[in-house]
Structures are given as C-alpha cells and as structure tokens.
Amino acid sequence: MNQTVNVIFKSPGIGDLCILIANIHAISKSIGKPVVVLAPKSTHASSILKNDPLVKNVIDLDKKGFFNIIKKIKSYKFDQSYIFSDSIRLYLISKISAKEVFHYKFFSKEGKNFYKTAKEFTEKTLNTEVDPQSKIYCNKDDIEQAKKKFNISDSTKNIVCGISASGPTKRWDINNYIKLFENLNSKFKCKFFLAGGPNDEDLIQKITSSSIGDKCTSFSKMSIAETLPIIGACQYYCGNDTGWAHLSSGLGLQALCLFMDSPPLAYSSYSKNIHVVVPEGETLESCVHNTRGSDKISFSKVLKKSLELIS
Description:
The protein is of the alpha/beta class and about 300 residues long. Helix 8 (about 200-210) links the parallel strand 7 (about 190-195) and strand 8 (about 215-220). A 6-stranded parallel sheet has the order 8-7-6-9-10-11, sandwiched between helices. A 5-stranded parallel sheet has the order 3-2-1-4-5, with helices on both faces. The model has no long low-confidence stretch (mean pLDDT about 90). Helices cover about 40% and strands about 20% of the residues. It starts with a strand and ends with a helix. The protein has 2 domains: about 5-125, Glycogen Phosphorylase B (Rossmann fold, 3-Layer(aba) Sandwich), CATH 3.40.50; about 140-310, Glycogen Phosphorylase B (Rossmann fold).
C-alpha cells in the first residue's frame, strides 16, 4: 500500500477536525504509516496537523471545482480513501482518485451524533476499537519559546479564554467573563489568553479595558499556528463551545466548556478533558442546536466549576 487519503467531513469547523483526529490516527496506525488528509482550508488542518507524526501531508479541500480537487489528489495514486461524510460529490472524487473507497452511507448523516458517527464508521471499517480522545502534537521547542515570550510558568494559572463563538447565540455575555476572570484573579495569580479573532476586537477591548486587562494577552492578531504553542503551554481553558475549546482539549488542557446552543453529547463526549456547563433547566441530552440558552448559564455554577477545575 502506498498512501491513504482521509477525506474529512466537509463542515468547515476547527472543532470538527479536532474531533476527527482520533479517527485519522486510528487509520494511520492500522496501515502502519502516515496518511494524507484532505480537509477544508477553514479547518486550519495544515497548522493543526503540522507536527503530527501520523499525518504525511494536508491537502486543502477546494470548493471551486470538482475536477480541480481530482487534479490535486490524483497524482498521489491512493490505494484507499476514507470519507467522513455522506457526500456523493466526495465519493465520486475519491472513486476516481483511489482504488478502494470507504464512506458513510449516502443521506445518512442528518440528525446523527457527530463524533459517534465517525467513531462507529472507523471501528466498523477497521474492525478495531477507537479511543475517541484526540491528541494534537505541538513542537516542544515552540512551547518552551512561548513560555519564555509570554512569561508562562507553573506559578501562574494560565487560562485560555474562549470568549468568541461562531454566532451570538453561542456566546456567554462578555460582562460575565470579566466578572469571572476578576473573581479567579482575586484567588489565584492568573494570566488570561483571550481566544478570539479580528472580528472579536470589541469583546477583547472590553476585557482589556477592565480591571484585569493587564493580566490578558489577545490572540486576535495571531494565526492559529502562532497560538498553538501558547495554548500548549497553558493548563486550562474556560469559555464557549468553540474551536479553541477543542484545540485546548487536544493539547491536553482541562477545558470548562459552556454549551448554550449546541449539543454537548456530540461535541464534548469524545474528550475526557472537556467539562460541560449547560443552561439552567437543560441537560446534556436536551441541550441542542437552537436551545438558545446563553442568558440561562448560571454565573455561580461557572465560577464554582472554574474554581474546582483550577484549584
């Protein structure tokens, strides 16, 4: 066997990629060599999988054209293709470009648990059990450099703060986070790393203008590749259900994740590092897309769980 392409689920989310990493690793181990990963550019797979010994290369999943994607991957002469999607388009692309194709049943994905569907598919295809806990590899020298540059040490509680989200219904009020960080900083010596992008500058400005602003470093002007060693140098994540939470979990941080408009069973159960808070009156089972419970996340519960996590 020459190589294997693992075609990632077509959703553009960083979190989706992070959840699927355990399956990528299982496939690589089953064939005894690194695999090639095909993923949407928006997953930042090239940066996230850069140091992964079980991934040989990452190819961007181009949305612009059917034949353009085939042209990109046909020269690899893949023996096998694993498709974590029920997409007919991806199936046809793989069928043309690989000798053997494994894929979800067509029109089968809707309403399914994301991580369980991937796990069951991999286990059935490989006939082996898959540990769903994903691991992200980061260069140790890069982590040590990040520690020196940002003065990160074990004497400080170094917390990645996921204040951003893919939409307003998935964001806890920024004033709650300011209050939370002020409480934590009054009890521990803390450094806060604000995980957000250029579109979150207004949220970041509110925090940096507050009483704990001098304890904060913003990720907003950094690339994902630049933030990974910093995250890897930290110990904790506290924030919304975002890609930052999954990156933190994959890098070994203990993550307190607030689910208010997405299903924790699909996006947290895969990881022993993710600890969940849901809106008052909701459960892990009842909290789903369109729950819209951002104003029902209890501040006292988040503070209590945060203190338990970092004590």
